[in-house]
Every structure is written in C-alpha cells, then in structure tokens.
Specification:
The complex is a heterodimer of chains A (371) and B (77). Chain A is an alpha/beta fold. Helices cover 37% and strands 17% of the residues of chain A. Chain B contains two helices and five strands; from the N terminus they run E-H-E-H-E-E-E. Classes of the chains: A alpha/beta (371), B alpha+beta (77). Chains A and B meet through strand 5, strand 6, strand 7 and strand 8 of A and strand 4 of B.
Chain lengths: 371, 77
C-alpha cells in the first residue's frame, strides 16, 4: 500500500480489524443524506465527513439562532442568522477536503422528498418533528432506502435502523399512529440535555458507516433507547405491524396525496397567527387575547393586556370569551394552544379563535430582532 | 402478585416514577385497560409495549416474570 496523503489521513481506521482499504473505498463511493442539521445532524455530519464519506447531502431550511448553540456544535456565535446548511457545508468541507457536500436549504416535504432522497444511498433522520419523520419514512420505504432514525426527549434518546436487512421494518411498524405535537413535545417545549443529541447523532453516523461498509451488525429491526441520567441502553426487537401497511403510501401518487397535517394532528395550521401578524393585531380593539398558561408562568408581559385562563379551566370560564371579537390564544411555545383550540372549537363551538404560532417566546424573539 | 413495568420518556413524568408496579394482568390489552383505568391522564398517550424486549404488535400474554416496558415516541432533534 502506498503512502498517500489520504492514507495518512485515514491510517488509524485503515489498520482496524475488518476495516481496511475495502471499507474506505466503500465510504468514498457512498452518498449519505442528513436531514436536519441541528442537535443530531451536527455531530453526525462531523463524523461522516471525518471518516471519509465521499458525498454528503444536508437538508435544513433554518438559520442559526442563539438557542441552538448549546447543542448544535458546528455553529459559533458568529454564525447567528446564517443558513445552517451553508455554515455546516463550509465546516465539514474544511474538515475533510475529500468530501463533496451538497446543500438543500429547504424543509423536507412530501413534494420534494422523493427527488432529494433518490440521489442518496443512506438517509439519516435528524429532524425535530413527527410530520418530517413520517414523510422521510414513507419516502424511504417507497424508494427502499435505509434510514437511520434518531430522536431525543430531555435526557433520553432513541436510535433505530429502518428499511435495512431481512424482513425490514420501518417507523410505522413501531408507531403506526402519530402523536400530535401536544402529545410529544419538542426541544423548545420540553428542553434537551445537549450531550444526548451528541451521543444519538454520533450513534446515527456509526450506524450509517456500518451499513455502508458492512462491518458489525447495524441496529436493523431494533430500537435502542438511551438514558443519560441512569446511563442505561435498552434495546428492543421490532416486528412488522399489521396496522402499518394500510397507512403507508404504496405508490408515489398516494404519497403525494397523503394528508400529513391531518395524520400528525396539525389540522390547526389554518388557525395560526404569526408573531408578526400578532404584533400588528395588538393595536386593534376588536381582538381579545387569552393567555392559557398556568397562573404563575413566566414571562409575564404587562403590555399584552391579556386575560389569563389556564388550559384546564377554559370550559369553566367560557362566558369570558367575547363572541364578537377575534380571539387569539397564546401559551409559552404554541403547543398547548393546540389543545385549547380543540376544546374551544370542537367542544364549545367557538369559531372566532386562533392561536399565536410559536407562543409568547416567538413573539418576544420577533420583538427583540425588530429593535 | 405484581408485574413490574419500566417507563421511558414523558411517561416518567406522567406516572411520576421510572418504574411501576401493577396487580397482575394476563395480557397486554388488559394491561392498557388497567393503566387507563388507574391513570386516566395516560388515556390519550401514545406508547408501545415491549414484553421481554420485543415490541408487541398484537395482544401478547404476560406473567409476573415478564420484563415489560412502555416506550413513547420522541420527536426532538
């Protein structure tokens, strides 16, 4: 074997048992797509690039914000406001110049998923919401592409490999029914321990590398749960779920027509008010603001002139809602108001209610950016 | 006789503990009913039941020696 710069770069892994030149060449020929360049995507991208994956794609529509920095370790304070895809591309390209990096600065949707995913061999699901996860799962199931799934909740994480191996299962075999956003809160609503995203994202990269090179046993048809507080790993076996098949789009046409908003309990999208719209509406006197947070919840904003009726007491105080006004509900991050909309629209037959998307923290963010 | 149940993710908050002890039931369908009856707040919670480290996709027999875990989906990233 001749000593080339790339041999030197990879020498420590080339001498591993069962790795060698063959594995390195498979990695160089591989195309890996990382969807979501956040807490999970950042460490995954770093390890995929460093080990010598030939082509990496990054999908993310967001820009770097300050609350990302505690766990999204590719980004620095200087990157605030920049597209995550572009910053990540620059960093991992510099890390390994042998790696070609493509960026897709869009949110993954059922309309672009097939075209994007088709160009890759392995997909890492590093997203932060169920709608994206089911879209990725269904597109990859249609295209028969292996998915390395990763997800976190507070101090815990999950990893699984779908569409890979004999009798391969996918995410719908595990969870045939999607929870609504309110039932499974994201990092904004529930918080996350930064090293959990580091560990889960790194494990996802490891599974992708194992799939590409054929070393070891990927986590196919298994779900691994990690608890950082007890430092336990708990792995369970998965099998085909009869409920999964009837819900999974079987053709591209079915996939394009599937109602993911309905399936994921996002039917309140039409009732959303953006922070900007909300800010403009505050000046009007035909608007009634209802704060559905608990009595002592912070931040308290005096200038909003809202009535505070906690979610659990809405029905008790239904007489306080002014039928002739536009009623806008808000909470901390716009998750609990989805439950409130269900109660008020379905049970109380109020149809003049909407809610502040992203909650009071999104509006406060908007206001501080405007200054 | 009791069965022991391991809890994951948000279910730890819902039940207020990491492990649950419940009077013995004979299968996973009855377990779901027993849980909803005793803890109404979990009625709408989404989770899968694993028995002896296998996710159940249909009603599955359990006994006091079974290792039972309730696993909710996570969405964060």
């Amino acid at each position: 074997m001749q000593t080339t710069p790339s041999y030197e770069r990879y020498q420590r892994q080339l001498i591993l048992p069962n790795f060698g030149e063959a594995a390195q060449q498979k990695l160089a020929a591989a195309r890996v797509l990382v969807i979501g360049a956040g807490g999970l995507g950042c460490p995954a991208l770093q390890y995929l690039s460093a080990i010598g994956v030939g082509h990496i794609g990054i999908v993310d529509e967001d820009v770097v914000s300050i609350s990302n920095l505690h766990r999204q370790i590719l980004y620095t304070t200087d990157d605030l406001g920049k597209l995550k895809t572009e910053v990540a591309q620059d960093r991992i390209q510099k890390m390994n110049t042998n790696c070609t990096v493509s960026t897709h600065s869009v949110a993954i949707t059922q309309f672009n998923a097939v075209d994007i995913i088709n160009n890759y061999d392995v997909v890492l699901d590093c997203t932060d919401n169920f709608k994206a996860r089911y879209i990725i799962n269904d597109a990859c199931t249609l295209l028969k592409k292996p998915v390395v799934f990763g997800a976190v909740f507070q101090y815990e994480g999950q990893v699984a490999v779908f569409n890979h191996g004999i009798d391969a299962v996918h995410y719908r075999d595990l969870f045939p029914v999607s929870p609504t956003a309110a039932e499974a809160p994201n990092c904004i609503e529930s918080g996350v321990f930064n090293i959990v995203t580091g560990i889960i994202g790194t494990l996802q990269a490891g599974e992708a590398i194992k799939i590409i090179t054929g070393i070891g046993e990927p986590l196919s048809n298994r779900l691994m749960s990690y608890n950082s507080l007890s430092l336990n790993f708990y792995t369970v076996k998965l099998s085909k779920n009869p409920d999964a098949k009837k819900n999974t789009p079987a053709t591209k046409e079915e996939f394009l027509q599937y109602d993911y908003n309905q399936f994921c309990g996002l039917h309140h999208l039409k009732d959303e008010i953006s922070a900007e719209e909300f800010d403009a509406l505050l000046k009007r006197n035909d608007v009634q603001l209802i704060d559905i947070r608990n009595k002592d919840e912070q931040p308290h904003v005096d200038e909003l002139n809202a009535i505070r009726i906690p979610l659990s007491e809405l029905k008790l105080h239904i007489n306080l809602f002014e039928k002739e006004k536009q009623i806008i509900l808000f909470c901390h991050s716009g998750i609990r108001t989805l439950d409130a909309l269900d109660i008020l629209q379905d049970e109380c037959q109020l149809n003049n209610v909407s809610h502040l998307k992203g909650g009071i923290i999104r509006w406060l963010d908007y206001k501080s950016n405007k200054k | 006789m009791y069965i022991q149940i391991l809890l994951f993710g948000s279910l730890v908050d819902v039940f207020g503990k990491k492990q649950l002890q419940l009077a013995q039931v004979n299968d996973t369908d009855t377990l779901r009913l027993a849980l909803s009856a005793r803890y109404p707040s979990i009625k709408d919670a989404k989770f899968v039941i694993s028995v002896d480290k296998k996710i159940t996709v249909e009603n599955t027999a359990i006994d006091t020696t079974s290792e039972i875990a309730l696993l909710p989906p996570f969405s964060g990233g």
